[in-house]
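pinging the channel bc i need a second pair of eyes. not urgent but kinda urgent?? the chain im working w is below, pasted from the shared doc
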Amino acid sequence: MAAVVYIFYNRPGASVKKEEFVRVWNPQDLMAVIDLEAQQSTGPGEQPVVAIIGRPNVGKSALFNRLLGARQAIVDEAPGVTRDRIYGQVDWGRNSFFLVDTGGLTENPDDPLIEQVRSQALLAVHEADLILMVVDGKIGPTFEDEEVAQTLRHSGKTVLLVANKIDSIKDERSLAELFGMGFGEPAAISALHGLGIGDLLDLVVERLRPPSHQLAVSEPVRVVIAGRPNVGKSSLLNRLIGRRRAITDPRPGTTRDPLEARLRLGTHTMALVDTAGQKRRSRLKSSLDFYSTLRAQRAVSSGEVVLLCLELDQMAEQDKKIAREIHKAGRACILVVNKWDLRTASTPALSASDVTRRLRTFFPQMAHVPVQFVSALSGKGIPELCEKILQVHEEFHRTISTPGLNEVLARLTASVGLRGSGGRTFRLYYATQLSSAPPRFALFVNSRSQVSDSFLRFLERGVREAFGFYGAPIFWDLREKRRK
């Protein structure tokens, strides 16, 4: 028995409404027509719409058929076969959405038919919640592709770039050029052979979630409290939530397993995780110490914002090691100086700015990380710490546009030049943000070996000055690209 399929097709003058979709057991038996002008936007409770857009002959209809699992759209090597918008429903896991196939988004004022096809494609752009811009991945971006991309940028819609016809690893060599279109990393697929289709559907479902999904109250900001033993981590947790959630004791090693507690601040919710003190390997005297430290390290990797608790009178090399692990895990961080009331009472002349400068020297890899002085005992500095957590979390998820990023990089490199190892010059073509949480950027150059760590640190400082990323690490992926 064939699966249930819903089929929709546009016919000028049709009057069947969206609610009158026809349920059929064989997609070849019946086609339901709908008045497309009557449903240019999806209302509350209706399924989202995904439109396939691109220039002619890049495999849009082949992708449409592949995603539906049925040969609903006619596919031919000749361009311009698809003209009207064709609709179908796609089910992926527990998610469903309407898929729209369109004709090539091209322009020819002298040909009324081409202009009508273009109008139909623009209507699909207008009604879509997500756009799949399809390009020929084998040949890279063309002038027509750039025109389509410009139209989609002006639409203000979310665009997922799809590189079709990637049938082998050899074909992936041309993908680097597609980053310059400004839509991020392309999804490499082969509609003909079904390669990469599952990954593409996962991306579609992820992009269709409402913008508030990641920061909703039901998905709290995950905050991990880390540090050496006996620096006041459990006391800080208790002070943050206003009750005695974690056992505290002057003796080190009281906390063994990670403890989680919830804190609500207005519309925000935090999942606070207290961890065991991380000891040096030479001081792990039992299997209990070993596994407590291991779980603390795993908790750091699962967090978003890590509060590295410090006690100035007992700063040690282990603090540096924990800081390096936080950075390596790609987590945002705040340096929390605890017991600040005791410090200022014993040495009142020591200011917060003096201590901050000392911390910048002690933790060179944490120059971007904010410092907060608190007293878990009295509650001093706790409201300011909560504000910093939310601010750093937002910076951790920050994304910036490709044009804006490259404008900043062009200004930075114009002032210093591009000299690499041994004094040789190299070429920096462009950069684009690959992801957030943590922020990761791809840097396209002609020779990766010529790009020094000091140059990347210079770029990082410039990017932070222009865009922020307060408290969040920044990672660079060097990608070699040679001009043809």
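so The first strand starts at residue 5 and ends at 10. and The CA atoms of residues 57 and 78 lie 7 Å apart. — does that match what u expected or am i reading it wrong
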